Description:
It is a single chain. By secondary structure, this protein is α+β, with helices and mostly antiparallel strands. The protein has one domain (2-123): Riboflavin kinase-like (Elongation Factor Tu (Ef-tu), domain 3), CATH 2.40.30. The model has no long low-confidence stretch (mean pLDDT 90). The chain has a six-stranded antiparallel barrel with strand order 1-2-6-5-4-7. The protein has helices spanning 14-18, 21-31, 49-58, 108-111, and strands at residues 2-8, 40-43, 62-63, 72-79, 83-90, 99-103, 119-123.
Amino acid sequence: MKIDGEVTTGLGKAAYFLSQEFYTREFKKNCGFIPFPGTLNIVVPEKYLDEINKIKDDCEDIIKPDEGFGAVKYIDAILEDKIKGAIVFPAKTTHEENYLEFISENKLRDELNLKDGDIVSLEF
Length: 124
C-alpha cells in the first residue's frame, strides 16, 4: 500500500518512549535499526483508515514492554521511496486514528528538510 499524508507536529512524547532501552533493543533486533528518539507524525486521508486499521489489527509484529509501558505494534515501511523505517502503533496513544507515526534511525525533519504541511509518501 502506498499513500500520501501531511507532516504534522506531534505531542513530543515519543522521544521519551523511544529512548527506553527495551524499545531500542527490540527495534534494533526486529527492524535492524535503533530509532531516532522521536516519530515523524503523518496525517493520512480518512479514505485509507479502514485498510490501515485492518493492517494494524492483523499485525503480529509487536514489542512487549517492560512494566508500566505499553505494547507497540509495528510494520516495515518506506518514506519518500528511500528511507527505511517502520510505522508504529502504540497500544497507549492520544493520537487520532488518522495519525501515523513513522520511525527511522535518522531525524527525518532535518534530513528531508520537512515542515508541517509538507506532503510525504509512505509505502508499507
